[in-house]
Amino acid sequence: MKIIIINFFVFSVLLLTGQLFSQSGEDLFKSKCSACHTVGKGKLVGPDLAGVKSRKDEQWLIKFITSSQTVINSGDEYAKKKFEEFNKVIMPDPGISETEIKSILAYIETQGGTPTTQTVSTFRPLSESNSGNIESGRKLFSGEQRFTHGGTSCISCHNVPDVTYFGGGRLAVDLTNVYSRLGEAALVNIIQTQPFPVMKQAFVNNPLTESEVYDLASYLKDVDEKQKFALHANPTINFLYSGIAGLAVLLVVFTGFWHKRRKGSVNNKIYKRQEDFLNKNSN
User: Fold this and answer.
1) What does the mean pLDDT of the chain come to?
2) Domain with residues 126-232, CATH architecture
3) pTM here?
């Protein structure tokens, strides 16, 4: 009986302290970090984390991992620099304890290696995409074509210039220039792994296929490049042509009014009106 009571007490303590069935540092890293980071294999959405504890002390890392935006908004120069370096992509708060963060950091240390700035990519280059990939991506984005596993269309939360006449959703960021901001590897990886909470929830039971990821990335690259082309068009020439066209329209309108007024002189109209009056009274 005493053994049962002791076991129950130990079980309760472990449960309350979060030690029972806790994930290992490796499991936590894979579930919370690997969508955006590697250890010694290059950068993805965020930096390579090999040797991260040699760059910043553990307490700073715990604070940053707990809430990166809090540290950035506090004015921390290193945090601000990294935020800028990685295109201001907001790192979601992972919602884990300090103990779990320490476990992740310990796992990273055991992996060794040295950080590299090389960008990791597991997909064929988007430069190899064709009009079919781009059109398929457009239809998937807009919802004209359903995802294979039934996920929510991108237009529900995001917008790009040519998606529909009324535009897309405003729940999440505008994706017009996402290819320029993130780069190819990060863009593909975000679409593939959905590291952000709302995005992850939308696709948790509806994973995208490899071809769908590629087609969406191809479409967003095409949107970005078309937008840049439009912005780099000569604005002076466009303004001049618009002015000439507007002037031509105004001339046509005014000419029509003037022609109508010149059908008869004012004096002729007065004379005609008086003549009609005299004829009426003489009768």
Assistant:
1) 79
2) Orthogonal Bundle (1.10)
3) 0.61
